[in-house]
């Protein structure tokens, strides 16, 4: 995993990891809560099951990690790694609100942005690399606070107002946090994009030309290669295209800041070896998207019962974290991609196929 390599390279033998926090586990439109994509669904599918149909996009964000600037010119910058469109489409009124839930969000340094991309007749069939993004919401650095400070203060809920004049139609909404605690070094920024299909209703007609995902950012943009530990921050240029409805006068672009040599953030580089399971245990209440109320997504019954952390727990780990070793030759045992260990688990620990690998303290898996 490139993020693992990067973090390990950056911080040496040790890295602090935070519990899972890289996925939007639920979202709300006009106050109505709906199911997000959970990493459990990925494992369910791998186990031959069927994942619930949701409007949120699936990803293969198996380490609850991020997209880094070396991936800005790949399709993964659109909606995270190997993202595929959600099967459903939710809806919101123009002028209404969409909220995204990022449980246990630990990074308070960096901007938060929301984009929409017109997906034509059917968002469930769209190719992410063809989407053209229009930024409808951005929070950079203001009055001593980052956008992400607000997200943390609001318990991981980010709320975006849909422009009242936005053209009615089907959109992919893209909420993104760019964590900059390591942004002082080249390719140290961490982008966490998450996508959901939402139709905007109303009578709006405005929709500016959008920007392809691969054109959104550059590794050396002043708001990407940015040292947040430079003392008093006098100005911060939010990356990406201009905001919907903003005047077209371009803001002066500052030269990129010097990469910092002694980045105190390095001690908290993270995200490798985060767990590959959800931490938001949504109860499935009011989960259904409107188009398929008879097929309401259910909480996966085989979901590993991970304790929901109430605070961010930091621990140190090395790449050689102990993992129970499965007996790959056994004809008995856990199926490929099944759970084979972790705190609170008391099932079989040998794998019928593959090897039992520790993903985190709560989850080991036959892979
Ligand atoms: Cu992180």
Automatic annotation (TrEMBL):
<protein>
    <recommendedName>
        <fullName>lytic cellulose monooxygenase (C4-dehydrogenating)</fullName>
        <ecNumber>1.14.99.56</ecNumber>
    </recommendedName>
</protein>
<keyword id="KW-1015">Disulfide bond</keyword>
<keyword id="KW-0624">Polysaccharide degradation</keyword>
<dbReference type="InterPro" id="IPR049892">
    <property type="entry name" value="AA9"/>
</dbReference>
<dbReference type="Pfam" id="PF00734">
    <property type="entry name" value="CBM_1"/>
</dbReference>
<dbReference type="InterPro" id="IPR005103">
    <property type="entry name" value="AA9_LPMO"/>
</dbReference>
<keyword id="KW-0964">Secreted</keyword>
<keyword id="KW-0479">Metal-binding</keyword>
<keyword id="KW-0732">Signal</keyword>
<feature type="compositionally biased region" description="Acidic residues">
    <location>
        <begin position="260"/>
        <end position="290"/>
    </location>
</feature>
<keyword id="KW-0186">Copper</keyword>
<dbReference type="InterPro" id="IPR035971">
    <property type="entry name" value="CBD_sf"/>
</dbReference>
<dbReference type="InterPro" id="IPR000254">
    <property type="entry name" value="CBD"/>
</dbReference>
<keyword id="KW-0560">Oxidoreductase</keyword>
<keyword id="KW-0136">Cellulose degradation</keyword>
<keyword id="KW-0503">Monooxygenase</keyword>
<feature type="compositionally biased region" description="Low complexity">
    <location>
        <begin position="291"/>
        <end position="309"/>
    </location>
</feature>
<keyword id="KW-0119">Carbohydrate metabolism</keyword>
<feature type="domain" description="CBM1">
    <location>
        <begin position="332"/>
        <end position="367"/>
    </location>
</feature>
<feature type="signal peptide">
    <location>
        <begin position="1"/>
        <end position="22"/>
    </location>
</feature>
<comment type="similarity">
    <text>Belongs to the polysaccharide monooxygenase AA9 family.</text>
</comment>
<feature type="region of interest" description="Disordered">
    <location>
        <begin position="251"/>
        <end position="309"/>
    </location>
</feature>
<dbReference type="Pfam" id="PF03443">
    <property type="entry name" value="AA9"/>
</dbReference>
